[in-house]
Amino acid sequence: MTRDAVALGGAEILVMTSADHNTGGDLIASYPPAAQVSPEDVLSANGWRVADGATSEVEGGYRIVAVEAVNWEQIIEHVRGARAQAKFEATRRDRAWRDALQGALLAGGSASRLSAAAGVSRERAYQIRDGRR
Question: Per-residue pLDDT for 53 more than 70?
Fold first, then answer.
């Protein structure tokens, strides 16, 4: 990642699967850049090896490099932590969604309109309103 990319804010070092003709690749892991440490060194410290001569510049000051796993256990531990964090966040957002839908229904909102807005059937909306399942 170049200084231009870091200046854009929210910079991350992303490791993704190879892109194919159907997808842009899937995220495997992300690492925050470290001050005074090259992205290659961050990757190395997290179980990856940057392949020689496999760097290409893309717009916005970003670089794409090919990497190979050299420490699967370290990588899997990192990914496990990220997965747990994502599951926690999904649970928190689901609870907020349920609470909002339940509150709107209990306040007398239209079940038809609210269930459509929520993307669920009216029956499911009533289950959420009543605290069933």
Answer: no
8 Å CB contact between 14 and 27: yes
Strands 62-69 and 48-58, how do they pair?
A: antiparallel
What number of other Cβ atoms are within 10 A of residue 13's Cβ?
Answer: 20
Task: Kindly state the percentage of the chain with pLDDT values over 90.
Answer: 59
**String of DSSP letters for 41-52:** HHHHHTTEEEEE
Range 35-70 burial, b when 16+ CB lie within 10 A, else e: eeeebbebbbebbbebeeeeeeeeeeeeeebebeee
**15, β-bridge pairs:** 29
Q: Is the dihedral of CA 22, 28, 31, 37 positive or negative?
A: negative
